[in-house]
User: What shape does this take?
Amino acid sequence: MQLSRDEYRKYIRAKRQQLSESFQQQASQELISQFSLLPEFNTSQHIALYLSVDGELNTTPLIQWLWQQGKQTYLPVIHPFSKGHLLFLNYTSTTPMTSNRYGILEPKLSKNEIRPINTLDLICTPLVGFDDRGHRLGMGGGYYDRTLQPWFTKGCGPKPIGLAHDCQHTKRLPIESWDVPLPKIVTPSQIWQWESTNNPAIIPRKR
Assistant: This one.
C-alpha cells in the first residue's frame, strides 16, 4: 500500500533519528568528499546551507570546510513580515544566533547581513525524503518551495541542491501538482543528478 506524504515523513524521520553519533560523524565527512566533486562548487562563492536538526545529515563540518575554501556561507531566517518566506543571512563562526519558532538556531536578524536571494549561487536544501525522480519531500511548511519558485518556473536564481542521508531515499514518493524535482541531491555515498527538472521519468546518473 502506498504511504501518504505524512506517513513517509514519519517513517523516514524515524530511520534518520536512529542513526548513531559515530555514523553521523562519518556521514558528514563523506558529504564533504561528495560536495567537493560538484562542478558547482568551483564556480560558486555564495552558498546557502542550513543547520541540521532532527537527525538530518550534519552540515556543520561542511560549512566549516567551505570557510576553509574561502567560500561565503548563509543560513535561512524566517521572514518576520512575509509569512512563509525565508531570508538568508551571512553566517560566520562569530554570528550571533537565536532560536526561531521551531526551536532551530538561526542568525539574529540584521538587515546589514541579509544577502538577496537572487545573488546567491547555490541553495543547499534540507529534505525529509527523495525519490528516483528527484522529488523532494519537505516538512510541509513550503518555505523552500516558495524560495526556489524562480528556479523552478524560470530557471533563474540560485541553483538548489538537496542534501540527505542515503536512508532518506525511497523509490517513489507521492507527489502533488506543484512538486518539481531537484536537479541534484548529494548524499554521503553519491551525487544523484537529473538531466532536467521537467522530466520526472529520467533515470538519475550516480557519480
